[in-house]
Amino acid sequence: MTDAPPALAPLTDVEIWPLTGLRVVAGDLELRAPDDRMLLDLARLAAQGVHREDYMPFVVPWTRGTPTQVARGVMTYQWGLRQRTTPTDWAIELAVVRDGEPLGLQGMYAKDFRITRTAETGSWLGLRHQHGGVGTRMRLMILHLLFEGLGAERATSSAFVDNPGSSGVSRKVGYRHNGSVLQVREGAPVESQLYLLDRAGWDARPDELRLDVRIEGLGPVREQLGLDS
Ligand SMILES: CC(C)(COP(=O)(O)OP(=O)(O)OC[C@H]1O[C@@H](n2cnc3c(N)ncnc32)[C@H](O)[C@@H]1OP(=O)(O)O)[C@@H](O)C(=O)NCCC(=O)NCCS
User: Fold this and answer.
1) In a domain, 2, yes or no
2) What is the pLDDT of residues 110-150, one digit of tens each?
3) 123 in a domain, yes or no?
4) Nearest Cα to 221, choosing from 151, 159, 162, 128?
5) Is residue 5 part of a domain?
6) Could you report the per-residue pLDDT of 174-214, keeping only the tens digit for each?
7) Is 134 in the pocket of ligand 1 (CB under 6 A)?
8) What spacing in Å lies between the alpha carbon of 110 and ligand 1's midpoint?
9) How many Å lie between the centroid of ligand 1 and the Cα of residue 28?
10) Which residue has the least CA distance to atom 19 on ligand 1?
């Protein structure tokens, strides 16, 4: 009779995919990686509108099409993003959640972050959740994750010159204008404003922008992004 090999302890969710354990919490808002169930809710939300019909805030016009096309586009795009969670290239979009309901997505993107310590952010909210200050709070939360949790030295953002909401958040938070680039939007040229917030600017933000933020599950995410090796 041979002895059976000792059973290996099954891996936990966080060991397999550290982002499943990440939570960035401030008051009634939470950032967390969306699972497929939450992605379906986000897809439904996007299909109900992210901006006025006569406007386009994105370089890739993913919000055009029938509600079903927009919703399916959210799913396939998000599934694709999950591949970009490596130390040299990450594109992490976290759901902004209030009372269990996703209101939109707050993303952070970096190539070779370990060397540049620089990440770009981008975001959207469902139309009915806009203009109530959530955009500012979720930006502050992702900046807290970047500067305090991941050791960023710089955060960048950009917005079309005619997007007052996105630029409004950047200016309010203390980014400085850092030039502009010409881009193509739905076949026509459009100027994009570039914004930069460095560590000194982040540290100098006024009291009303100092949210009480708690990060859970950070260690395994730092390991996944190669920050502790
Ligand atoms: C950009 C976005 C995330 C901002 O979120 P939000 O919750 O609407 O933003 P806030 O309510 O925190 O507004 C922050 C500041 O922006 C400015 N602002 C917001 N909307 C504005 C508008 N329509 N016109 C002028 N200023 C505006 C204001 O200065 C505001 O500060 P205040 O509240 O002190 O007046 C949201 O509007 C959105 O999802 N827009 C569509 C998608 C998009 O444009 N994404 C960014 C692509 S670059």
Assistant:
1) no
2) 999 999 999 999 999 999 999 999 999 999 999 999 999 99
3) yes
4) 151
5) no
6) 999 999 999 999 999 999 999 999 999 999 999 999 999 99
7) yes
8) 23
9) 19
10) 165
Q: Domain span at residue 79?
A: 14-209+218-224
51 in ligand 1 pocket by Cβ < 6 Å?
A: yes
145 lines ligand 1 (CB under 6 A): no
For residues 129 and 80, what is the distance between their CA atoms, to the nearest angstrom?
A: 26
Evaluate: CB of 166 within 6 angstroms of ligand 1.
yes
What is the rounded distance in angstroms from the CA atom of residue 206 to the CA atom of residue 215? 21
CB 181, CB 189: distance < 8 Å? no
> Residue 229: pLDDT band by 50, 70, 90 thresholds?
confident
Nearest to 224 by CA among 87, 24, 82: 87
Q: Which tokens is 224 given?
A: 């996944």
Note if the pTM is more than 0.90.
yes
Number of domains in the chain: 1
Residue 6 lies inside a defined structural domain of this protein:
no
CATH number at residue 36: 3.40.630.30
CA of 88 to the centre of ligand 1 (A): 31
pLDDT band (50, 70, 90) for residue 2: low
